[in-house]
Amino acid sequence: MSRTSTGNHKLLGIALVGICALLLQGYVSLLAQDSAPHWVPFVAKLVEEHTNTLNATSVHATIEGVYVRNSQGASYTRRAFSVRSALRVQGAINVAFLHDRPNHTTYIIDFTKKTIKQQSHPAGNPDFALEPPLRPDFERRHASDLFLGKQIVSGVECEGYKIADQRHKGKYSGEGWYVPSLNFLMVRYHGRLPDGAEMSTLLQDIEPGKEPDPSFFRLPEGFKRVK
Question: Do 99 and 75 meet the contact criterion of CB atoms below 8 Å apart?
């Protein structure tokens, strides 16, 4: 075999090694992307109940609306408050919260007053983290809570916890049920607020994996910006 032929074979071998290395690097990169946490989109109906006692009169507020999240982690919640008491109808409020997670911003949209208030996400708050929580993160946040087991709520498998009361050691302030397959989204909650009011929250008609309508994440035109 000639020296030229031998040299060509060496060059070909080096080239093949380089190509194999590039292919392997790409494969490892794909595996890393597949194993990395990602936001699971969903569409759901939101129902909340608030009960409080004001001047010996029981006041009950029913809140209904929509709760959606896209695959970038941005979420939109619109609530229509219908406040009732034993005496008379007190009124209604129509408000939406647009959490633009990628841009670290929340918009409070008041459809009654036609205003938009912009707020920056607080640094270090896990509720506004860019990446979804992993199992160890979730368990750390509930290290002081009492695990209640698993249960199907609104058609999805949830894990329940009694939430520890940070003000009173050994006591609990509420009960929450979370969906691991939806980045540990809270689907049901019942508890007592610091002012003594009772609150229950439930997501219904959940559609996991469904991308919400992009219009949810666009600010309405003609609304006044307020501070």
Answer: yes
- Please state whether the predicted TM-score (pTM) of the whole model is above 0.85: no
Q: What is the pLDDT of residues 106-138, one digit of tens each?
A: 999 999 999 999 999 888 788 888 999 999 999
Per DSSP (E only), the strands in 86-171 are 89-100, 105-110, 115-120, 146-153, 156-164
Helices (H) and strands (E) in the chain, counts: 2, 12
Relative to beta strand 146-153, strand 105-110 is unpaired
Name the pairing type of β-strands 198-208 and 224-226.
Answer: unpaired
CA 97/CA 106 separation, integer angstroms:
7
23/97 Cα distance (integer angstroms): 45
What does the DSSP 8-state code read for residue 132?
P
